Amino acid sequence: MKAKINWLILYMGKKKRFQNRKKSDYKRKIGNRQELPPFRDREIVLSFRKFDRNQGQSFEEWQKSGLLALAIERLSSLCQHTLPQARAQNIITVYDQVDFPPKTNFEHPRHVPNGVDWASYHIQGKECVIGYFERNIFHIVFLDMNHEFWITEKG
Q1: Among 120, 124, 123, 122, which residue's Cα sits nearest to residue 149?
Q2: Of 142, 45, 57, 144, nearest to 86 (Cα)?
Q3: pLDDT tens for residues 80-129?
Q4: What is the CATH architecture assignment of 39-144?
């Protein structure tokens, strides 16, 4: 009997607590959350989800040649910019006029959608990180130590 009374007291206490609340108390308050800027105004973020292990070099090869730490350092500085800033300052090159380079030693990976705007980011000299942008996300696809993604006369 005592347990039944304790449960009843507990139930009544909770019931009163909820009776004092208004419907608006359960709604998320408008204006308390910071609005996110449009994607073009967000800083660049990196993704290795589409990285192709069958073409270009591996992370291990870049580490052995002393490029991996430098690449990470340079990529971290890229992430301080928005895509329009990086393009305006010629930090990154976006190839938005062609689907895939006409002269290349790479093949378009099946796991990368057709019609993306490929981009290259030079680490030093001819060494590049190759990928494409999806909003503010730079999907890194290839590590190109020998400038074979977009072959040029001087490349």
Answers
A1: 120
A2: 45
A3: 999 999 999 999 999 988 888 888 999 999 999 999 999 999 999 999 99
A4: 2-Layer Sandwich (3.30)
